[in-house]
Amino acid sequence: MIARYSLPEMAELWSDQARYTTWAEVEVLASEAQVLLGRVPEAALKDIRSARVPAAARVAELERERDHEILSFLAAFCEDMPEDSARWVHLGMTSYDLVDTALGRTLARACDLLAGAARRLRTALVEKAVAHWDTVCIGRTHGMHAEPTTFGHKLAGFAFAIDRSVRRLEEAREQVAVGTISGSVGTYALIDPFVEKHVCETLGLGAEPAPSQVVARDRHAQLVQAIATLGACVEQIALEVRLLSRSEVREVEEPRTAAYQGSSAMPHKRNPTTSERLTGLARLLRGYAGTMLENVALWHERDLSHSSVERIVLPDAFTVAHYQVTSATELIRDLDVHPDRMRAAIDHTGGLAYSSAVLADLLESGHERERTYRMIQDAANGEDFFTLLRTEGVRTDPLGPDRFLVHHDVIYKRLERLRELDH
Q1: What is the pLDDT of residues 182-196, one digit of tens each?
Q2: Residues 55-78: what's their mean pLDDT?
Q3: Distance in angstroms (rounded) separating the CA atoms of residues 113 and 8
Q4: Are strands 252-253 and 336-337 parallel, antiparallel or unpaired?
């Protein structure tokens, strides 16, 4: 992913150097297990443990000669090792025993980093929802004025969506945090299953229960689906901010510094560019999700068609999502909210926002539904809704936003339970 949409902690996790560090860790642990089995001498393990993680530039140099990254890594890893020790490295293993087990470790760490960012977004949404729980605003359906709600209620809905996304990500983490060290077609023909057990348990991974030569790719498809869904939930937040930021609405505005310049030609502009960026990044994540589904079906015990895809999609999906979620957190924390504009939008309806309450009251008092509905509808098309209602003998005095918030505490109690997750 380009640096513009990368944060250092996630980008570093997916660097070539980080990958080779994890590969070296897997090779050391595999050798430890082989020593415990009596297949590798203790002296060799000492040399293997003390070997330096090869520099990414050196692996790339050797790959130009070998055209095989794993063999190039192993050559670089063993470069300064005595031959009597080097010959025990990678004993009984195939390339993807190393690659997929290390990938499981990296994916688990990346999931933890992304889930942490998503929890912070959830917290920001909950806190903003609590702060604006009684900030009355107009609800909209089909983009049109509907009934009163509160801005806190809107934000609560987003908070629960992010909470579900966190749980989906946690489930996906469990599915991808697996490895396999089972040999060329997954039969353990040349390697004892104990090696897999030792390596995976040490790394905090599960083991693929019926390995072929690779970890099953439906796991990774599920993961990127979860990431894309998280991205879509962030997009939902961003879209609401964009809609409420329009000039004729201006109920919220993105936070801006004094240095902000919104348009090269129109100095008055205050564009919701952060929200627009979050929306665009969600589109990328949905594309990645579809691509990963193409990786599930491989030829026989394995082919290599998934590899080039994953080298791009997995780092990019995590990096984009991490950036997107972190940016959304900052947006929500510092969002400028205008309660006066929200109330003005309700008042601007001239009472139309209360039409459902009028209908309910008249029906409860015994009026016939079809005639009553038409009468209210006709009044809504007139110049003064309340005046026309009064000519029909309808009382309008008690109508106001509070009428629609009588059970608002029910939702608040649910939000409080979500808030407790962060304390």
Answers
A1: 999 999 999 999 999
A2: 95
A3: 12
A4: antiparallel
Phi and psi angles of residue 147, each rounded to the nearest 5 degrees, phi first: -125, 165
Q: Is 322 designated active site? A: no
The single residue of 15, 50, 68, 263 carrying the catalytic annotation is 263
Q: State the residue range of the domain holding 373.
A: 352-398
H helix intervals, 269-393: 273-293, 305-333, 339-348, 355-364, 369-380, 385-391
Q: Which two tokens stand for residue 14?
A: 């997916």
Mark whether 6 and 133 lie in a shared domain. no
Same structural domain, 314 and 279: yes
The domain that contains 301 carries what CATH number?
A: 1.20.200.10
The answer to whether residue 166 scores a pLDDT higher than 90 is yes
> Is the whole-model pTM more than 0.90?
yes
Residues 143 and 109 in one domain: yes
Going by C-alpha positions, the residue among 301, 322, 297, 325 that lies closest to residue 309 is: 297
Residues 310 and 369 placed together within one structural domain of the fold: no
pLDDT at res. 141: 95
**In the numeric block, which tokens belong to residue 156?**
């609560």
* Structure-block tokens of residue 33: 């297990």
- Which residues have CB under 8 Å from 78's CB, separation 6+? 51, 86, 89
263 is catalytic: yes
